[in-house]
Amino acid sequence: MSSAQVRFGRYIIVLALVLATAITGFTVFEGLSPFDSVYLTIVTISTVGYGDIAPKTEFGKILAMFVILAGVGIFLFVFAQAIEAMVSSQESRSRMKKVNMVVGAFFSEAGVPLIRLIRPSIEDKGYLDNEMKIKETWTDQQFRDAGRMIGTHEFIIDIHLVDIAGVHGLLKDRRAFLVQLLQHPALFEHESFTDLLNAVFHLEEELSARDGLGPLPESDYSHLSKDTHRVISLLFVQWLEYLRHLKVNYPYLFSLAVRTNPFDAGASPIVR
């Protein structure tokens, strides 16, 4: 929680105490009904002041002055912060839509092809395919549950089954595109996707640094296996997050993504 949120929470508590004190005081000392006490407190603290109900006792007037001095500034601050939070929330949603457009471009150009190249090398791909066989009826909770299971599952890669040359060719061909994505200002707010891009870049650099891609020493295959594992552990979770975004915001894109699911051997873009 940020310091601004903590400060806002404290102002809310102080405002609630001022309101409770004013309502109780007007009820007890002015003889007003609870409803009229709330009404008088609100019109006083909001500086509306209709004048139809006014304190008549000395204590009531003192209490009204306290409400004005202590409560008006706090009320205006809380009101302004609430408006700012709503505007900020709308701007954040707008930025995240732009971010997900970038994420979508990544999966179309590189992410999904990369999944198709690496998936056959995963020893427990039966578990993976089952968890990632997304249906159009999935709920938000199902996406979250799948993301949690995939994110914590330790996949085992048989690096000898990876089409290393194919992976290298794909990443090398898409390098300029990936550089453009990494420079996109919207991604500054999406650290997990930036981590994925960095992992993909590192794998491409590792493969490009070698004069040839086979045969290699087992120690080097082990090293490449770790780099590949780093990529897929981030790639699979991000793919789920992206499809969850499509389900909510772009159902027609979600439908196509489900029908071309790289984890579903029976997937087909043909609508049946």
Offer a concise description of the structure:
The chain has 272 residues and is mostly helical. Helix content is 72%, strand content 0%.
How would you describe the overall organization of this protein?
The chain has 272 residues and is mainly α. The protein folds into two domains: 3-89, Helix Hairpins; 91-259, no CATH class. It contains ten helices and no strands. It has helices at 3-29, 34-45, 58-118, 125-131, 140-152, 164-173, 175-182, 191-208, 218-249, 251-259. Helix 7 (175-182) runs antiparallel to helix 8. It is elongated, with a radius of gyration of 29 Å.
Give, in order, the helices and strands.
HHHHHHHHHH
Share of helical residues: over 70%
Tell me the total number of β-strands.
Answer: 0
The total domain count is 2
Low-confidence stretches: none
Characterize the overall form.
Answer: elongated
**Share of β-strand residues:** under 5%
Counting helices, strands and paired strands, the structural category is: mainly alpha
**Biggest sheet architecture:** none
Radius of gyration computed on alpha carbons:
29 Å
Task: Summarize model confidence as the mean pLDDT.
Answer: 87
Distance between the termini: 48 Å
For this entry, what is the oligomeric state of its chains? single chain
What's the helix count?
10
List the helices and strands and how they pair.
Layout: H1 3-29, H2 34-45, H3 58-118, H4 125-131, H5 140-152, H6 164-173, H7 175-182, H8 191-208, H9 218-249, H10 251-259
Helix pairs in contact: 1-2, 1-3, 3-6, 3-9, 5-9, 6-8, 7-8, 8-9, 9-10
